[in-house]
Amino acid sequence: MHVPAAFAGVCLIVLVLVDGFNTIVLARRTRHMFRITRIFYRLSWTPFAAIARRIQSGRRREGFLSIYGPLSLLTLLALWAVGLVIGFGLLQWAAGMQPAREHADLANDLYISATTLITLATGDPRNAGSKFIGALEGGLGISFLGLVIGYLPVLYQSFSRRELRISLLDARAGSPPSAEALLRDETRRPEKIEDQLQQWEEWAAELLENQLSFPMLGYFRSHHANQSWLTALVAMMDATALILLSSDRDLRTQAALTFAMGRHALADLRATFGLKPVCPPPDRLGNAEFKRLRETVAAARGPLQARRMTEAELRDWREMYEPDACALADHFLMALPTWLSHDSTRENWRTNLREREKTPFAVSDPFREEPGK
Predict the structure, then answer these.
(1) Which of 40, 157, 230, 348 has the maximum number of C-beta atoms within 10 A of its C-beta?
(2) d(CA 208, CA 206)
(3) Are the beta carbons of 348 and 224 closer than 8 angstroms?
(4) pTM
(5) Per-residue pLDDT reduced to its tens digit, 230-279
(6) Measured torsion, CA atoms of residues 109, 110, 112, 113, in degrees rounded to the nearest 10
(7) Domain-by-domain residue ranges, the chain?
(8) How many CA atoms are closer than 13 Å to the CA of 36, on its beta-carbon side?
(9) Could you give the CA distance from residue 271 to residue 144 in angstroms, rounded to a whole number?
Protein backbone atom coordinates (compact mmCIF):
# COMPACT_ATOMS: atom_id res chain seq x y z
CA MET A 1 0.00 0.00 0.00
CA HIS A 2 2.89 2.40 0.66
CA VAL A 3 4.24 2.39 -2.89
CA PRO A 4 0.84 3.13 -4.53
CA ALA A 5 0.22 5.85 -1.92
CA ALA A 6 3.59 7.46 -2.69
CA PHE A 7 2.87 7.29 -6.42
CA ALA A 8 -0.60 8.83 -5.95
CA GLY A 9 0.86 11.56 -3.75
CA VAL A 10 3.53 12.49 -6.29
CA CYS A 11 0.97 12.52 -9.14
CA LEU A 12 -1.40 14.75 -7.17
CA ILE A 13 1.36 17.21 -6.26
CA VAL A 14 2.54 17.41 -9.87
CA LEU A 15 -1.01 17.91 -11.14
CA VAL A 16 -1.62 20.78 -8.71
CA LEU A 17 1.68 22.48 -9.52
CA VAL A 18 1.23 22.17 -13.28
CA ASP A 19 -2.39 23.29 -13.14
CA GLY A 20 -1.63 26.31 -10.96
CA PHE A 21 1.32 27.27 -13.14
CA ASN A 22 -0.63 26.99 -16.37
CA THR A 23 -3.73 28.72 -14.99
CA ILE A 24 -2.17 31.72 -13.26
CA VAL A 25 1.54 32.03 -14.05
CA LEU A 26 1.95 30.85 -17.63
CA ALA A 27 -1.05 32.94 -18.74
CA ARG A 28 -1.72 31.38 -22.11
CA ARG A 29 -4.00 28.69 -23.44
CA THR A 30 -2.55 25.22 -22.97
CA ARG A 31 -3.83 21.74 -23.72
CA HIS A 32 -3.51 18.92 -21.23
CA MET A 33 -5.08 15.52 -20.83
CA PHE A 34 -6.17 16.47 -17.33
CA ARG A 35 -6.77 19.97 -16.00
CA ILE A 36 -8.05 20.51 -12.47
CA THR A 37 -9.20 24.04 -13.26
CA ARG A 38 -11.15 23.01 -16.37
CA ILE A 39 -12.97 20.23 -14.55
CA PHE A 40 -13.65 22.45 -11.54
CA TYR A 41 -15.31 25.18 -13.62
CA ARG A 42 -17.35 22.72 -15.64
CA LEU A 43 -18.64 20.96 -12.55
CA SER A 44 -19.32 24.09 -10.50
CA TRP A 45 -20.76 26.43 -13.15
CA THR A 46 -23.45 24.03 -14.37
CA PRO A 47 -25.40 23.81 -11.06
CA PHE A 48 -24.72 27.48 -10.29
CA ALA A 49 -26.18 28.55 -13.65
CA ALA A 50 -29.14 26.17 -13.19
CA ILE A 51 -30.00 27.89 -9.90
CA ALA A 52 -29.62 31.32 -11.52
CA ARG A 53 -32.08 30.39 -14.28
CA ARG A 54 -34.75 29.81 -11.64
CA ILE A 55 -34.44 33.36 -10.28
CA GLN A 56 -37.14 35.34 -12.05
CA SER A 57 -35.96 38.82 -11.05
CA GLY A 58 -33.25 40.02 -13.45
CA ARG A 59 -31.62 42.26 -10.84
CA ARG A 60 -31.49 39.50 -8.21
CA ARG A 61 -30.28 36.98 -10.75
CA GLU A 62 -27.49 39.29 -11.86
CA GLY A 63 -26.49 39.86 -8.24
CA PHE A 64 -26.39 36.10 -7.69
CA LEU A 65 -24.29 35.53 -10.81
CA SER A 66 -21.82 38.24 -9.78
CA ILE A 67 -20.79 36.08 -6.82
CA TYR A 68 -19.54 33.19 -8.90
CA GLY A 69 -16.42 34.74 -10.46
CA PRO A 70 -14.62 35.85 -7.27
CA LEU A 71 -15.94 32.89 -5.26
CA SER A 72 -14.77 30.36 -7.84
CA LEU A 73 -11.28 31.86 -7.84
CA LEU A 74 -10.99 31.63 -4.04
CA THR A 75 -12.38 28.08 -4.12
CA LEU A 76 -9.86 27.11 -6.78
CA LEU A 77 -6.99 28.39 -4.61
CA ALA A 78 -8.36 26.37 -1.68
CA LEU A 79 -8.67 23.30 -3.93
CA TRP A 80 -5.03 23.56 -4.92
CA ALA A 81 -4.01 23.87 -1.26
CA VAL A 82 -6.06 20.80 -0.31
CA GLY A 83 -4.49 18.87 -3.18
CA LEU A 84 -1.00 19.69 -1.94
CA VAL A 85 -1.93 18.74 1.63
CA ILE A 86 -3.30 15.36 0.54
CA GLY A 87 -0.37 14.71 -1.80
CA PHE A 88 2.29 15.43 0.81
CA GLY A 89 0.23 13.61 3.46
CA LEU A 90 0.31 10.47 1.33
CA LEU A 91 4.06 10.85 0.87
CA GLN A 92 4.57 11.19 4.61
CA TRP A 93 2.44 8.11 5.26
CA ALA A 94 4.36 6.16 2.62
CA ALA A 95 7.67 7.28 4.17
CA GLY A 96 6.52 5.99 7.56
CA MET A 97 6.69 9.31 9.35
CA GLN A 98 7.48 9.07 13.05
CA PRO A 99 6.06 12.21 14.67
CA ALA A 100 7.35 13.26 18.05
CA ARG A 101 3.97 14.00 19.67
CA GLU A 102 1.34 12.29 17.47
CA HIS A 103 0.42 8.72 16.59
CA ALA A 104 1.75 7.46 13.28
CA ASP A 105 -1.39 7.11 11.15
CA LEU A 106 -2.74 8.63 7.93
CA ALA A 107 -5.05 11.13 9.66
CA ASN A 108 -2.20 12.62 11.67
CA ASP A 109 0.03 12.61 8.61
CA LEU A 110 -2.56 14.70 6.75
CA TYR A 111 -2.87 17.05 9.72
CA ILE A 112 0.89 17.54 9.96
CA SER A 113 1.01 18.03 6.18
CA ALA A 114 -1.56 20.83 6.46
CA THR A 115 0.32 22.58 9.27
CA THR A 116 3.58 22.27 7.34
CA LEU A 117 2.07 23.76 4.16
CA ILE A 118 0.93 26.87 6.00
CA THR A 119 4.24 26.91 7.94
CA LEU A 120 2.76 26.21 11.38
CA ALA A 121 4.88 23.04 11.56
CA THR A 122 3.35 21.46 14.68
CA GLY A 123 4.86 18.07 13.82
CA ASP A 124 8.53 17.17 14.38
CA PRO A 125 9.28 13.89 12.58
CA ARG A 126 12.26 11.85 13.73
CA ASN A 127 13.00 9.92 10.51
CA ALA A 128 15.14 11.55 7.81
CA GLY A 129 12.74 10.95 4.90
CA SER A 130 9.84 12.69 6.63
CA LYS A 131 12.06 15.62 7.58
CA PHE A 132 13.07 16.07 3.95
CA ILE A 133 9.45 15.87 2.75
CA GLY A 134 8.35 18.35 5.44
CA ALA A 135 11.04 20.84 4.48
CA LEU A 136 10.12 20.48 0.81
CA GLU A 137 6.43 21.03 1.55
CA GLY A 138 7.09 24.08 3.72
CA GLY A 139 9.23 25.72 1.06
CA LEU A 140 6.73 24.84 -1.63
CA GLY A 141 3.84 26.22 0.43
CA ILE A 142 5.54 29.58 0.74
CA SER A 143 6.74 29.80 -2.87
CA PHE A 144 3.82 28.29 -4.81
CA LEU A 145 0.88 29.73 -2.89
CA GLY A 146 2.69 33.06 -2.53
CA LEU A 147 3.39 33.16 -6.26
CA VAL A 148 -0.21 32.33 -7.16
CA ILE A 149 -1.65 34.91 -4.75
CA GLY A 150 0.87 37.45 -6.03
CA TYR A 151 -0.59 37.08 -9.51
CA LEU A 152 -4.10 38.02 -8.36
CA PRO A 153 -3.45 41.77 -8.84
CA VAL A 154 -2.50 41.02 -12.46
CA LEU A 155 -5.82 39.26 -12.98
CA TYR A 156 -7.83 42.10 -11.44
CA GLN A 157 -5.88 44.63 -13.48
CA SER A 158 -6.97 42.78 -16.62
CA PHE A 159 -10.54 42.89 -15.35
CA SER A 160 -10.31 46.66 -14.76
CA ARG A 161 -8.99 47.32 -18.27
CA ARG A 162 -11.85 45.31 -19.72
CA GLU A 163 -14.43 47.27 -17.76
CA LEU A 164 -12.93 50.65 -18.73
CA ARG A 165 -14.03 50.40 -22.37
CA ILE A 166 -17.45 49.10 -21.32
CA SER A 167 -17.94 52.13 -19.08
CA LEU A 168 -16.84 54.48 -21.87
CA LEU A 169 -19.40 52.87 -24.15
CA ASP A 170 -22.21 53.90 -21.79
CA ALA A 171 -22.29 57.57 -22.88
CA ARG A 172 -21.97 56.65 -26.56
CA ALA A 173 -24.38 53.76 -26.93
CA GLY A 174 -26.40 53.50 -23.71
CA SER A 175 -26.56 50.71 -21.16
CA PRO A 176 -27.12 48.15 -22.45
CA PRO A 177 -25.57 49.39 -25.73
CA SER A 178 -27.18 49.14 -29.14
CA ALA A 179 -25.92 49.59 -32.68
CA GLU A 180 -28.55 52.24 -33.43
CA ALA A 181 -27.51 54.45 -30.50
CA LEU A 182 -23.87 54.07 -31.41
CA LEU A 183 -24.40 54.99 -35.06
CA ARG A 184 -26.66 57.89 -34.15
CA ASP A 185 -23.97 59.50 -32.00
CA GLU A 186 -20.82 58.59 -33.95
CA THR A 187 -21.60 59.25 -37.62
CA ARG A 188 -20.73 62.91 -38.08
CA ARG A 189 -17.17 62.76 -39.43
CA PRO A 190 -15.34 59.80 -41.01
CA GLU A 191 -12.14 60.37 -39.01
CA LYS A 192 -14.17 60.28 -35.80
CA ILE A 193 -15.70 56.94 -36.76
CA GLU A 194 -12.29 55.55 -37.76
CA ASP A 195 -10.87 56.55 -34.40
CA GLN A 196 -13.67 54.78 -32.56
CA LEU A 197 -13.30 51.69 -34.75
CA GLN A 198 -9.60 51.56 -34.00
CA GLN A 199 -10.26 51.79 -30.26
CA TRP A 200 -12.82 48.99 -30.50
CA GLU A 201 -10.33 46.87 -32.44
CA GLU A 202 -7.70 47.34 -29.73
CA TRP A 203 -10.23 46.60 -26.99
CA ALA A 204 -11.39 43.40 -28.70
CA ALA A 205 -7.76 42.26 -29.09
CA GLU A 206 -7.02 42.99 -25.44
CA LEU A 207 -10.24 41.25 -24.38
CA LEU A 208 -9.23 38.17 -26.35
CA GLU A 209 -5.71 38.05 -24.94
CA ASN A 210 -6.83 38.62 -21.34
CA GLN A 211 -9.56 36.00 -21.38
CA LEU A 212 -7.41 33.44 -23.18
CA SER A 213 -4.77 33.98 -20.50
CA PHE A 214 -7.30 34.03 -17.66
CA PRO A 215 -10.50 32.27 -18.84
CA MET A 216 -12.08 32.72 -15.39
CA LEU A 217 -12.44 36.44 -16.23
CA GLY A 218 -15.36 35.49 -18.45
CA TYR A 219 -17.34 34.65 -15.31
CA PHE A 220 -16.63 38.01 -13.69
CA ARG A 221 -19.72 40.21 -14.17
CA SER A 222 -19.50 43.93 -14.89
CA HIS A 223 -20.02 46.51 -12.17
CA HIS A 224 -23.51 47.41 -13.44
CA ALA A 225 -26.29 44.88 -14.00
CA ASN A 226 -27.14 46.33 -17.43
CA GLN A 227 -23.60 45.94 -18.80
CA SER A 228 -21.42 42.98 -19.75
CA TRP A 229 -18.31 42.32 -21.81
CA LEU A 230 -20.28 40.12 -24.24
CA THR A 231 -23.06 42.70 -24.69
CA ALA A 232 -20.50 45.41 -25.44
CA LEU A 233 -18.57 43.21 -27.88
CA VAL A 234 -21.66 42.15 -29.83
CA ALA A 235 -23.01 45.71 -29.97
CA MET A 236 -19.66 46.74 -31.41
CA MET A 237 -19.89 43.94 -33.99
CA ASP A 238 -23.44 44.98 -34.94
CA ALA A 239 -22.40 48.58 -35.51
CA THR A 240 -19.25 47.57 -37.40
CA ALA A 241 -21.24 45.34 -39.75
CA LEU A 242 -23.53 48.25 -40.59
CA ILE A 243 -20.55 50.54 -41.18
CA LEU A 244 -19.02 47.94 -43.49
CA LEU A 245 -22.17 47.97 -45.62
CA SER A 246 -22.57 51.73 -45.78
CA SER A 247 -19.02 53.09 -46.13
CA ASP A 248 -16.06 53.00 -48.51
CA ARG A 249 -12.33 53.71 -48.75
CA ASP A 250 -10.33 54.10 -45.52
CA LEU A 251 -13.40 53.96 -43.31
CA ARG A 252 -14.48 50.63 -44.76
CA THR A 253 -10.95 49.26 -44.44
CA GLN A 254 -10.83 50.10 -40.73
CA ALA A 255 -14.32 48.68 -40.25
CA ALA A 256 -13.17 45.41 -41.87
CA LEU A 257 -10.17 45.22 -39.52
CA THR A 258 -12.34 45.87 -36.46
CA PHE A 259 -14.90 43.32 -37.59
CA ALA A 260 -12.18 40.70 -38.15
CA MET A 261 -10.76 41.26 -34.66
CA GLY A 262 -14.19 41.06 -33.03
CA ARG A 263 -15.06 37.88 -34.89
CA HIS A 264 -11.70 36.40 -33.93
CA ALA A 265 -12.39 37.17 -30.27
CA LEU A 266 -15.85 35.60 -30.32
CA ALA A 267 -14.73 32.48 -32.18
CA ASP A 268 -11.67 31.85 -30.01
CA LEU A 269 -13.50 32.45 -26.73
CA ARG A 270 -16.27 30.06 -27.79
CA ALA A 271 -13.66 27.41 -28.59
CA THR A 272 -11.81 28.04 -25.31
CA PHE A 273 -14.92 27.16 -23.30
CA GLY A 274 -15.67 24.15 -25.48
CA LEU A 275 -18.97 25.50 -26.83
CA LYS A 276 -20.73 24.74 -30.09
CA PRO A 277 -22.20 27.50 -32.31
CA VAL A 278 -25.86 28.27 -31.63
CA CYS A 279 -28.38 29.60 -34.12
CA PRO A 280 -29.38 33.17 -33.21
CA PRO A 281 -33.01 33.97 -32.39
CA PRO A 282 -34.94 34.80 -35.57
CA ASP A 283 -36.49 37.95 -34.09
CA ARG A 284 -33.24 39.71 -33.17
CA LEU A 285 -33.42 41.95 -36.24
CA GLY A 286 -36.67 41.98 -38.18
CA ASN A 287 -37.59 43.85 -41.32
CA ALA A 288 -39.10 46.79 -39.41
CA GLU A 289 -36.02 47.11 -37.20
CA PHE A 290 -33.75 47.08 -40.24
CA LYS A 291 -35.72 49.90 -41.84
CA ARG A 292 -35.36 51.93 -38.68
CA LEU A 293 -31.62 51.37 -38.74
CA ARG A 294 -31.46 52.69 -42.29
CA GLU A 295 -33.47 55.72 -41.26
CA THR A 296 -31.07 56.36 -38.38
CA VAL A 297 -28.06 56.24 -40.70
CA ALA A 298 -29.77 58.48 -43.27
CA ALA A 299 -30.84 61.02 -40.65
CA ALA A 300 -27.30 61.31 -39.27
CA ARG A 301 -26.13 62.97 -42.53
CA GLY A 302 -22.65 61.64 -42.05
CA PRO A 303 -20.27 59.68 -44.30
CA LEU A 304 -22.36 56.51 -44.08
CA GLN A 305 -24.61 55.85 -47.07
CA ALA A 306 -27.88 54.26 -46.03
CA ARG A 307 -28.83 53.31 -49.59
CA ARG A 308 -25.97 50.81 -49.69
CA MET A 309 -27.35 48.84 -46.76
CA THR A 310 -29.35 45.75 -47.70
CA GLU A 311 -30.93 43.26 -45.35
CA ALA A 312 -29.56 40.26 -47.28
CA GLU A 313 -25.96 41.47 -47.11
CA LEU A 314 -26.29 42.30 -43.43
CA ARG A 315 -27.58 38.79 -42.80
CA ASP A 316 -24.42 37.37 -44.42
CA TRP A 317 -22.20 39.44 -42.11
CA ARG A 318 -24.28 38.49 -39.07
CA GLU A 319 -23.88 34.79 -39.80
CA MET A 320 -20.13 35.19 -39.32
CA TYR A 321 -20.36 36.10 -35.63
CA GLU A 322 -23.86 35.63 -34.19
CA PRO A 323 -23.65 31.81 -33.74
CA ASP A 324 -20.49 32.25 -31.63
CA ALA A 325 -22.05 35.13 -29.70
CA CYS A 326 -25.21 33.14 -28.99
CA ALA A 327 -23.19 30.18 -27.71
CA LEU A 328 -21.32 32.45 -25.28
CA ALA A 329 -24.57 34.16 -24.26
CA ASP A 330 -26.23 30.83 -23.42
CA HIS A 331 -23.21 29.67 -21.43
CA PHE A 332 -22.63 32.83 -19.39
CA LEU A 333 -26.33 33.83 -19.12
CA MET A 334 -25.66 37.14 -20.84
CA ALA A 335 -28.35 38.40 -23.19
CA LEU A 336 -27.31 39.70 -26.60
CA PRO A 337 -27.90 43.43 -27.14
CA THR A 338 -30.79 44.66 -29.20
CA TRP A 339 -30.10 46.44 -32.48
CA LEU A 340 -32.38 49.32 -31.58
CA SER A 341 -32.38 51.53 -28.51
CA HIS A 342 -35.56 51.68 -26.39
CA ASP A 343 -37.18 54.44 -24.42
CA SER A 344 -36.63 52.47 -21.20
CA THR A 345 -32.89 52.27 -21.92
CA ARG A 346 -30.92 55.18 -20.55
CA GLU A 347 -27.24 55.78 -19.97
CA ASN A 348 -26.11 55.02 -16.43
CA TRP A 349 -24.65 58.49 -16.02
CA ARG A 350 -28.12 60.02 -16.58
CA THR A 351 -29.73 57.99 -13.78
CA ASN A 352 -29.24 57.61 -10.06
CA LEU A 353 -28.63 54.24 -8.44
CA ARG A 354 -32.27 53.68 -7.49
CA GLU A 355 -33.51 54.36 -11.03
CA ARG A 356 -30.83 52.09 -12.44
CA GLU A 357 -31.94 49.19 -10.23
CA LYS A 358 -35.50 49.52 -11.58
CA THR A 359 -34.45 49.10 -15.22
CA PRO A 360 -36.56 46.43 -16.98
CA PHE A 361 -33.51 45.05 -18.75
CA ALA A 362 -30.80 42.91 -17.21
CA VAL A 363 -28.06 41.39 -19.32
CA SER A 364 -28.72 37.94 -17.87
CA ASP A 365 -32.48 38.15 -18.52
CA PRO A 366 -33.69 35.06 -20.44
CA PHE A 367 -37.31 35.58 -19.34
CA ARG A 368 -38.00 38.97 -20.97
CA GLU A 369 -39.65 40.04 -17.75
CA GLU A 370 -41.94 43.00 -17.53
CA PRO A 371 -40.97 46.20 -15.73
CA GLY A 372 -41.60 46.17 -12.01
CA LYS A 373 -41.06 42.44 -11.48
Answers:
(1) 230
(2) 5
(3) yes
(4) 0.82
(5) 999 999 999 999 999 888 888 899 999 999 999 999 999 999 898 999 88
(6) 110
(7) 2-150, 157-357
(8) 26
(9) 30
